[in-house]
């Protein structure tokens, strides 16, 4: 309703863009907020950046009130659709389109565009690396460590578990192992793997972990137990890349956030200029497997800028 | 012995009535109120165009409404001289329960009632542990918190539940005269709690028990029942807060509103400083809630880095409580 | 009790061991001390006397660095001193056993006796052997060999705990020893031990300050006395030159009336009947008390008197036995609430921990016991609370700024009146009082005795415990003595004498 | 009036001596010990091939070693009758400080000393707030926790620091006779703390203050200094735990080891139940730590779902404390 009126005119008011993320306490979230604000300002936008500290009780009202004060575009960084239902309602009511980066694993009508990474692709890459390293998945015992509260990790750990079973492998412990709190992810994964190895000596072939921090705990447990299972993670943090280079971790996955962000910024510019929204509201982008071979060339996700 | 002896009192009486006058008695301008006024003034001077506008005040109220409810629950327990560290977990479980029930097809009112019953039962269990089995409230509610979060994870299966019926979300997101519903609800619940604490026999008993368990018992107060009911009410009110939070966010997760526990305790503590007796009290708690709300909103408006915000929040809570304690220090 | 002949008047005064001049101290606008003056010589026992709230405890706390005076000077051996805290005072040889001081229940007796700076240590390490040895010696010096030094202090009986606290005060090698009502919870045996120790300390040149409301003790033990009133010092003189009546009238600022009022006449109607009651300590106690009668209960410490009253008030569970009030049998272990409803009210033994909420106002304290009677349909009436509070303040002549003053700021006697007011507002048929005058000055004591009589005249049945035999005889119509939980004697008060009661106390049953 | 009256005492005295015999005095087989034995037995019977093997016991010890250190710090503060809710945050900041310093080129020993000094200063600050400004330990350390986490985020700039020198990591990951170094360190620190609490004048003063602040003060104990030192020591020891955790994981983040706060309090509470006086004590704390460690390891070995583990952890803590409290209940 309101959005289009000012969208074409670059003369009077600068277009207003609300950029918010709940994950500003993570390196990627922090990078994204800064990057978007900087790029947007360069493009002549009036960017209001809202940081949520994982506290939706605080963030959602802030975003909604910004929406209430008028805006042209809402840009969601890394916040799962489930947690921002009230923001989606508010922006729909105000007729403001919401663009998003990695904010849900499925198409959702709440978004004009959400670009995320290809979760199945990530699983294919990591399980492929595991399979190559241990000679196929059939008959192998693989532990999958996930964290259900995180939508992306939840989806990919589910896919990985399914694929392992489909390929004839066994899930260590009979199910996906859950880390309860991301803050203690590394310690929890360490204990999970160490205790499993103790309880089932010589059984574990590989550990597939949904994110690098916990993967590093698994790596440590395996090296301390003197076991020979391989570990993969996801995110390409500098620590994980170093572990891959050192050979203690088999692989991780780089997700191309800078280029994804550029794509979305373009789509927003396009919308602000012409009022046209992207044809598809959901896009999945391919990722890069990081192994010892290419590790040196990857920019770590916590050092994007 | 003649009654003239009583005349020695008057010389001091007049001086003291100053403090003890009806209004002044339970509202001494403690450091907490000073801190609130100072914060409001500071943010107003920094951003006179924004801070005290209708929209921003509405924002602050909206942002603290659920904390206010949970801090109200915490106040009840702290009046009795205990703690409830499980209020945050209970509210999360209540929200998750309502959410899961609705997604499972239960009608909205039934789902809400179910959630409130869950909260009530957790409170009851806390009460039994503390009042009848004599566990320390600290350890009992800490362990309860752990278990309740675990149950909430099971209820949500570790995910964030969403896609609730619009009518449910309306409870948390709807507006009346421009003001969001949770604000009204927080006010209504606070007033009810204030009334219960101040004017009911149960409220009186809570205050007495908080003053001295032994004296209360020897004065005929059923101490165990009083403590049990305080915890039960706290569980119930926390559950209201949790249901409202789920409606407000349109989603529910096991760790939702995690910091409400910590902030509720902080708010009650801030509020305790305004009474000379140092007892928990609802008016004080709401001042504490306001400080927390103003601080977070104001720092956001000034665009202060999130980490620095966190450092400042702790520092300002300490400063406010210290200011009040200086007054009482000389002994 | 005889006035002992070994009191030596201190005639030629040298430099006082400790002296205070013109001490002023206010708390939140209350003048606790207004120019108090006091001095004690080496080798004397100096009584500090005064009504409740006269400022004795405050003065003591100022003399030992707990409080700091608003103005005034303190001298030690003639030199001006300012004690920043208790430790500094102790280091200067000034040590007090405070009125409300007790022991630390969670640590051992030995550690309690040699706390803080007193703990034998080398290089920061506790020498446990020396600690126990010295603690044992301290206990022996006050004839308390039975107290085990390894036990947790909290496991001792209240009397033993007091003796441990006393042992601690002595362990400091004090040159000035101040005792604030040390005998309030002791029985005669311990008091005799205590006096012997104090006399030998005096003979070794220690200056002793002795605060007590038991004037007989003062006349037996002390050399000089100082009387305070309303925060100022009225007079200091030799005990030998004083007379007890004159001391009392100086303390209260008026002539002493007859301490105990006339006995009334009890009715024949039984208010409460107790049949074969057994508790933890109480054994097969049966008794009855009639409307308008004051039944006194005596016995040694630990004889089960308090337990008996607590059971009657529903505050403690009992094993078996019946309690019948006004013809109706109370349910087994009814709880305080139901006992109160049935008309049985208890004024407990420990005022500060059982009687009043120190951090609450007078009004709130009075309300606590009256919640059911001031409310309708679960809602409390502020007006009704106000009414009963005003009545209590007036009827009992409670000295306070008003109904909203915090009870913690009142003196002991007025706190006790608040406890009474709280229970009397319930209009009890049977009023149980456990040591109703403990730590209360003579003036207030007389008021309480009169009140007891007045209540009896109005038809209330009263059961009152006292450890002071003259009081027991003076205030009661009839007296029952407990010995190890059993009734060892019963006698009408007007024919009772102390010797007889004492023999019952030691278990010599009536034949 | 004769002295024979003293003979009435023995009846009670001898009972007391009964409890008070030297060995039995502070080690009554309370519910906590029963709970530990029951847990060990249960897991042993479920997996006799695994649970009590050398490797698994080593695992358990390794997993609890850092919690043991932090719970030791918490014990000191709780002996004095206070709480320190900031121990977890302090340990995280210490780890982060050491990490950032080493990455900035500081030599390892200097970095460690710096981290320990930071912990000591936080403890000192807590102590000043509680002992000298008379703040409630609860609110002071809660607010401190908030601020300290903020500072830790600033120090780590929100990332996880890693790439520490191998010699540093060796501290947390190295082994001596097959046993990891942190296990030895935890034992050494616990023994030192036990010794300090039991055999030093300071330790005894802490016990006295914990028993009664007022009586201690009036008896000439320097209460303020004693409380200040307790908090300071707790900050220092927590920092040791934090440095060790960083070395053990080879990394440091602002929220690392977050749950150590809660578990340390739970461990001390569990341990308090073994003493009749109900006071915090180091031996009891270690039993509490063992319960928490055995529970988590055993449930992992049985492959119990993480959320159910959490529910069970809370329930078992409650059960253990309740069991002990039943003994003391009759009043
Ligand atoms: N901490 C305090 N705060 C406020 N008022 C106080 C405080 N301590 C004492 N007072 C007041 O100072 C006055 C003197 O009290 P103090 O305790 O010294 O009397 P006392 O002579 O020892 O009486 P008692 O015989 O009852 O022990 C009283 O009016 C009392 O209410
Ligand atoms: N050995 C003991 N262990 C624990 N508590 C005790 C012991 N002896 C007495 N008590 C407690 O001390 C209090 C007083 O005991 P009791 O009723 O037997 O004594 P009393 O005759 O009133 O004497 P007192 O003058 O000491 O009050 C009671 O609450 C009782 O439970
Ligand atoms: Mg006094
Ligand atoms: Mg008694």
UniProtKB/TrEMBL annotation, chains B, D:
The keyword Cell cycle does not apply. The chain crosses the membrane at residues 26-48, 60-79, 110-132, 138-164, 176-197, 228-250, 262-295, 307-326. It comes from the Bacteria. Keywords: Cell inner membrane, Cell membrane, Membrane, Transmembrane, Transmembrane helix, Transport. Pfam families: BPD_transp_2. InterPro entries: ABC_transp_permease (IPR001851). It is a multi-pass membrane protein. It is found in: Cell membrane. This is ABC transporter permease. It comes from Microbacterium sediminicola.
From TrEMBL, chain C:
SMART domains: AAA. Gene3D superfamilies: P-loop containing nucleotide triphosphate hydrolases (3.40.50.300). GO terms for molecular function: ATP binding. InterPro entries: AAA+_ATPase (IPR003593), ABC_carbohydrate_import_ATPase (IPR050107), ABC_transporter-like_ATP-bd (IPR003439), ABC_transporter-like_CS (IPR017871), P-loop_NTPase (IPR027417). Keywords: ATP-binding, Cell membrane, Membrane, Nucleotide-binding, Repeat, Sugar transport, Translocase, Transport. The keyword Repeat applies. Residues 18-255, 265-509 form the ABC transporter domain. Pfam families: ABC_tran. This is Ribose ABC transporter ATP-binding protein RbsA. It comes from Microbacterium sediminicola. The lineage of its organism: Bacteria, Bacillati, Actinomycetota, Actinomycetes, Micrococcales.
């Amino acid at each position: 309703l309101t959005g289009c009126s000012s969208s074409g005119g670059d003369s009077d008011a600068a277009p207003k863009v609300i950029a918010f993320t709940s994950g500003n306490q993570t390196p990627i979230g922090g990078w994204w907020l800064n990057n978007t604000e900087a790029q947007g300002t360069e493009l002549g936008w009036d960017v209001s950046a809202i940081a949520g500290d994982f506290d939706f009780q605080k963030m959602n009202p802030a975003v909604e009130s910004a929406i209430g004060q008028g805006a042209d575009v809402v840009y969601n960084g890394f916040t799962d659709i489930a947690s921002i239902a009230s923001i989606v309602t508010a922006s729909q009511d105000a007729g403001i389109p919401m663009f998003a980066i990695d904010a849900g694993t499925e198409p959702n009508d709440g978004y004009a565009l959400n670009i995320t990474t290809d979760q199945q692709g990530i699983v294919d890459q990591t399980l492929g690396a595991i399979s190559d390293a241990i000679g196929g998945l059939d008959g192998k015992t693989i532990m999958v460590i996930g964290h259900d509260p995180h939508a992306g990790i939840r989806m990919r750990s589910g896919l990985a578990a399914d694929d392992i079973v489909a390929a004839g492998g066994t899930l260590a412990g009979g199910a996906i192992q859950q880390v309860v709190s991301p803050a203690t992810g590394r310690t929890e994964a360490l204990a999970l793997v160490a205790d499993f190895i103790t309880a089932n000596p010589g059984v574990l072939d590989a550990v597939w972990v949904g994110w690098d921090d916990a993967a590093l705990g698994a790596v440590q447990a395996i090296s301390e137990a003197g076991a020979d299972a391989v570990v993969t993670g996801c995110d390409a943090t500098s620590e994980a890349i170093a572990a891959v280079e050192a050979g203690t971790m088999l692989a991780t996955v780089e997700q191309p956030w800078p280029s994804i962000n550029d794509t979305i910024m373009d789509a927003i510019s396009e919308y602000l200029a012409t009022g046209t929204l992207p044809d598809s509201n959901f896009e999945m982008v391919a990722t890069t497997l990081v192994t010892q071979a290419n590790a040196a060339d990857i920019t770590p996700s916590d050092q994007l800028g | 012995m003649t009654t003239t002896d009583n005349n020695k009192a008057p010389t001091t009486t007049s001086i003291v009535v100053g403090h003890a006058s009806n209004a002044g008695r339970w509202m001494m301008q403690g450091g907490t109120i000073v801190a609130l006024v100072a914060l409001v003034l500071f943010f107003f001077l920094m951003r006179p165009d924004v801070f005290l506008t209708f929209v921003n005040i509405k924002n602050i109220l909206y942002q603290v409404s659920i904390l206010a409810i949970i801090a109200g629950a915490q106040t009840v327990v702290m009046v009795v001289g205990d703690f409830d560290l499980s209020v945050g977990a209970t509210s999360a479980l209540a929200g998750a329960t309502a959410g899961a029930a609705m997604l499972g097809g239960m009608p909205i009112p039934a789902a809400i009632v179910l959630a409130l019953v869950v909260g009530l039962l957790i409170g009851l269990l806390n009460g039994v542990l503390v009042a009848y089995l004599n566990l320390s409230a600290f350890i009992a509610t800490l362990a309860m918190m752990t278990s309740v979060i675990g149950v909430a994870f099971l209820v949500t299966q570790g995910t964030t539940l969403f896609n609730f019926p619009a009518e449910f979300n309306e409870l948390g997101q709807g507006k009346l005269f421009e003001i969001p519903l949770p604000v009204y609800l927080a006010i209504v619940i606070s007033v009810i709690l204030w009334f219960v604490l101040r004017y009911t026999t149960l409220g009186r008993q809570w205050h007495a028990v908080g003053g001295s368990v032994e004296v209360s018992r020897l004065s005929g107060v059923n101490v165990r029942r009083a403590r049990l009911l305080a915890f039960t009410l706290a569980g119930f009110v926390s559950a209201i807060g949790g249901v409202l939070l789920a409606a407000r966010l349109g989603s529910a997760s096991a760790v939702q509103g995690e910091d409400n526990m910590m902030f509720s305790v902080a708010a009650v503590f801030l509020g305790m400083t305004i009474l000379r007796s140092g007892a928990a009290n609802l008016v004080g708690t709401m001042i504490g809630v306001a400080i927390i709300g103003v601080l977070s909103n104001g720092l956001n408006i000034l665009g202060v880095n999130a980490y620095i915000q966190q450092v400042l929040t702790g520092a300002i809570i300490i400063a406010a409580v210290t200011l009040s304690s200086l007054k009482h220090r000389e002994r | 009790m005889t006035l002992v002949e070994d009191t030596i008047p201190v005639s030629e005064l040298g430099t006082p061991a400790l002296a205070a001049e013109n001490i002023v101290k206010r708390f939140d606008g209350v003048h606790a001390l207004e120019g108090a003056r006091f001095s004690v010589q080496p080798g004397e026992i100096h009584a500090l006397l005064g009504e409740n709230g006269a400022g004795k405890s405050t003065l003591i706390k100022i003399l030992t660095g707990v409080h700091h005076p608003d103005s005034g000077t303190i001298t030690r051996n003639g030199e001006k001193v300012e004690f920043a805290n208790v430790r500094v005072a102790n280091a200067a040889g000034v040590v007090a056993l405070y009125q409300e001081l007790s022991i630390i229940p969670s640590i051992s007796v030995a550690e309690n006796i040699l706390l803080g700076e007193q703990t034998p240590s080398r290089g920061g390490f506790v020498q446990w052997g020396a600690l126990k040895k010295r603690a044992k010696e301290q206990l022996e010096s006050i004839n308390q060999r039975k107290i085990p030094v390894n036990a947790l202090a909290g496991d001792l009986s209240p009397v033993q705990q007091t003796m441990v606290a006393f042992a601690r005060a002595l362990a400091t090698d004090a040159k000035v020893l101040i005792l604030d009502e040390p005998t309030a919870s002791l029985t005669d045996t311990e008091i005799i031990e205590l006096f012997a120790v104090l006399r030998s300390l005096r003979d070794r040149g220690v200056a002793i300050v002795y605060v007590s409301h038991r004037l007989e003790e003062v006349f037996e033990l002390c050399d000089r006395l100082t009387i305070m009133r309303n925060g100022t010092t009225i007079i200091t003189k030799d005990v030998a030159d004083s007379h007890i009546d004159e001391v009392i009238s100086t303390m209260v600022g008026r002539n002493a009336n007859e301490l105990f009022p006339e006995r009334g006449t009890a009715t024949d109607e039984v208010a409460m009947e107790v049949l074969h009651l057994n508790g933890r300590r109480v054994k097969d106690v049966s008794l009855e008390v009639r409307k308008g009668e004051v039944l006194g209960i005596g016995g040694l410490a630990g004889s089960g008197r308090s337990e008996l009253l607590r059971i009657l008030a529903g505050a403690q569970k009992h094993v078996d036995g019946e309690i019948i009030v006004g013809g109706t049998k109370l349910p087994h272990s009814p709880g305080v609430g139901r006992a109160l409803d049935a008309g049985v009210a208890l004024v407990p033994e420990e005022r500060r921990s059982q009687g009043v909420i120190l951090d609450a106002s007078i009004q709130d304290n009075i309300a606590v016991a009256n919640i059911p009677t001031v409310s309708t349909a679960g809602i409390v009436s502020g007006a009704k609370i106000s009414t009963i509070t005003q009545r209590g303040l007036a009827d009992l002549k409670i000295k306070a700024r008003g109904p909203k003053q915090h009870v913690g700021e009142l003196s002991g006697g007025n706190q006790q009146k608040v406890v009474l007011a709280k229970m009397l507002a319930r209009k009890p048929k049977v009023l149980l009082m456990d040591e109703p005058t403990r730590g209360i000055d003579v003036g207030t004591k007389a008021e309480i005795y009169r009140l007891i009589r007045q209540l009896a005249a109005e038809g209330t049945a009263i059961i009152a415990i006292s450890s002071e035999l003259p009081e027991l005889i003076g205030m009661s119509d009839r007296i029952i003595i407990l010995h190890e939980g059993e009734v060892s004697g019963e006698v009408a008060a007007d024919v009772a004498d102390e010797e007889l009661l004492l023999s019952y106390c030691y278990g010599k049953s009536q034949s």
